[in-house]
Amino acid sequence: MRAVRDRYAFANATLFVALAVAAGALFFGGGTTGSALPWLTLTVGGALVVLVLLEGLPVGAWKVVPLALLGVWAAISIAWSVEPDRTWTYANRTLLYAAVALFGTYLAGRERKVAAALALLLGALCVWALAGKVFAGLYPDYARVARLRSPVGYWNGLALLGDIALPLALWMARSRRLFGTALAFGWIVALALTYSRAGVAIALVVLLLYASLGGGWWYSTTTLAAAAIPAGLVLAVAFFLPGVTSDGQSGHVRSDDGLIFGVVLIVGLLATAALSRVRVPDPPPGLRRAAMLSAGLIAVVVIGVAATHASGWWSSFTSTQVAEVGNGGGRFGDTSSNNRYAWWTQAWHAFEAHPLGGTGAGTFAVTNLRYRTSYLDQAVEPHDVPVQFLSETGIVGAALVLLTVLFFHVGIVARRDGVKLALGLALPAFALHALVDIDWDFVALCVPVHLIAGMLAGKPERRRVSGSAALAGVGAAVLLVLSTFSVWLGDRYAGRASEALGTPAHAVSLARTARSFDPLTVDPILTEAVAAWSGGALDTARGYYLEAVRVQPHDADAWYQLGWFDLHVRNCARAALPELDRFTALDPQNRKNVEYDAALKLVNSGTPRC
């Protein structure tokens, strides 16, 4: 009996750690900066070491292998990367996701508890997100752009979490109708305020799949109606409040309109609660058939309209104009890809140039500068995860991505179990959304999704591992934690070094510490150059600039700083010309290319310049 109690307590501890990791990623993920990576890696890595040593590996853990190999391949790509410091970070990120998926396999058989806990977490996230609209001081940046995005930091990412939450809300409503309906209400409002076209479209897909495959379609439909009707009324009011839904509003307007919105939200929630208590009658005979017929007719109309407008929509979607789609509600009727098609084309050019290994994981920013046609076009990723990995990690990386998707997705929509379907729909939602966005860059999105993927891939049975295999696993976990903290510490010290330039000696000391942790980055080297220059040691400063371009020969900014230094500080146009020419080749659309023209004019003038 004691052994059973101990095992039960151990299982609960595992569940608690998993949910703590998910909560940390959701609320403190740090956007694309990866600031939470070391702490999440330390927690997951430590927990995995304990689990592997005490319990062995769950049956089904082999499905994580392609994802782990993708992380290893990303790390290998540092050898040829055009931006090796970012590649190192990206490899750490991908290996963390593999570790999270492996950790998730230990949760197999506990789907109901995990689903309920995730529903609670996503409910809390929704409350926090909407509170940022009610109380202006919680997220001041809404004065600039009104689209809902806190705490994830990205509107499309927040919308994806709504897509994951809605099937869970319908499942929760079966046993806790009030909570499930309220959760659906909150996320419908939040989803609309993100103005995410893909988010809304994917929400419709997952809701349709859950209602049609999960059983109880009539109950799901009526639950959704009880949430959607009040949510629609709340949104109707919200779009008349500029402080809630319009960009560039003053703090006073945001504060006043936010309080009004808060009152309307509460009224909408109360209406949702009242509707959730209405007894759901049995569906009239033939209603399901009529609904299917209506859906078929709607599909025919949609296909007809699409066929009629296909040429114009395709032209709009593939337009290379860099003007962004507006942030208002009108974006829902806009068929522009919002520069995505141009980024996909740029990524394809990079793949054609480096088909086997790509340009290095996480390096699209360099590709974008090389192939963009306007200085306004700038992106860190091409907004399509498969295309991104094809460009950055070549055929090998793209094949591993495909295997990962296949291993995790097989059988998801065939699951008739309500809770497994509600959880499993997070995977196709993520896969669809990843076709048009940069989801891999956000731990807030990838950690909960990979936790779910691992749980559904695993089985409760365990297989003991050999002592040598366990030792290898411990070593891999330790290396990953050290690798992640090394990059994190390097970045922190590099930032502190830049801030300390007022005292050059201290700045140099901090920069050298940064380089000891992360020898692949150029930022602390450039800081050392500025510190030496401010102290009058021009030859030493130039040596640092030359070292920076040796460490990262594809870094356009490093070449620019070297060329600018030679042109304006050393007054040596002949030395600056080839350096600025290299900068121009790496970033042809940059407005700073006037420096190259100035250097060329001086050289052609025949005036001796060094």
Identify the notable features of this structure and list them briefly.
610 residues, mainly alpha, 25 helices, Serine Threonine Protein Phosphatase 5, Tetratricopeptide repeat, 2 strands, globular, two-stranded antiparallel ribbon
Can you walk me through this structure?
With 610 residues, this protein is mainly alpha-helical. It folds into two domains: 2-463, no CATH class; 491-605, Alpha Horseshoe (Serine Threonine Protein Phosphatase 5, Tetratricopeptide repeat). Helices cover 71% and strands 1% of the residues. A two-stranded antiparallel sheet has the order 1-2. The protein starts with a helix and ends in a 5-residue tail after the last helix.
Question: Outline of this structure?
Answer:
This protein has 610 residues and is mainly α. It has two domains: 2-463, no CATH class; 491-605, Tetratricopeptide repeat domain (Serine Threonine Protein Phosphatase 5, Tetratricopeptide repeat), CATH 1.25.40.
Oligomer: single chain
For the biggest sheet, the summary is:
2 strands, antiparallel
Order of helices and strands: HHEHHHHHHHHHHHHHHHHEHHHHHHH
Strand content: under 5%
**What is the overall pLDDT average?**
88
Shape: globular
Low-confidence stretches: none
Q: Give the number of helices.
A: 25
Give the tally of structural domains. Answer: 2
Q: Which strand order spans the largest sheet, edge to edge or round the barrel?
A: 1-2
How many individual β-strands? Answer: 2
Q: How much is the radius of gyration in Å?
A: 27 Å
How widely separated are the two ends?
87 Å
Structural class, by secondary structure, is mainly alpha
Q: Which percent bin holds the helix content?
A: over 70%
